């Protein structure tokens, strides 16, 4: 279900930014960087991102789960970043245009 305040995209953007360096990260470290408590909550969110194809889940030699951003996740992060700018530009553009129009003689 889509939230009306758009916080789903802010959370997704932040999560993808945490994984942006493409270094596999365990769930505890991810939860720490995201500020998610209790830590067990993070695994449901990581499973959701995995289902969307934005991250992959792997186990390392010690059989510890590691999560890493995919190329699709990187593209989504770029889109989320551009969406923010586009929205801001859309809000500011009418004000700039009205200032220009009022400055004309």
Q: Total number of helical segments?
A: 4
Major sheet strand order:
1-2
Number of domains: 1
| Strand runs, count | 2
Q: Give the CATH architecture.
A: Orthogonal Bundle
Quick summary:
61% of the residues lie in helices and 10% in strands. The protein is mainly alpha-helical.
Structure description:
The protein has 105 residues and is mainly α. The chain has a single domain (7-103), classed as Orthogonal Bundle (Arc Repressor Mutant, subunit A). It is 61% helix and 10% strand. The chain has helices spanning 7-18, 27-34, 41-51, 71-103, and strands at 55-59, 65-69. Strands 1-2 form a two-stranded antiparallel ribbon. A hairpin with a 5-residue loop joins β1 and β2. α2 packs across α3. It is elongated, with a radius of gyration of 19 Å. The model has no long low-confidence stretch (mean pLDDT 84).
């Amino acid at each position: 279900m889509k939230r009306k305040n758009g916080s789903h995209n802010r959370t997704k953007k932040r999560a993808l930014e945490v994984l942006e360096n493409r270094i596999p990260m365990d769930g505890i470290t991810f939860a720490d960087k995201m500020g998610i408590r209790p830590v067990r909550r993070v695994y449901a969110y990581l499973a959701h991102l995995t289902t969307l194809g934005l991250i992959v889940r792997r186990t390392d030699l010690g059989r510890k789960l590691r999560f890493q951003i995919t190329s699709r996740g990187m593209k989504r992060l770029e889109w989320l970043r551009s969406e923010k700018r586009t929205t801001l530009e859309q809000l500011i553009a009418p004000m700039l245009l009205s200032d220009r129009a009022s400055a004309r003689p």
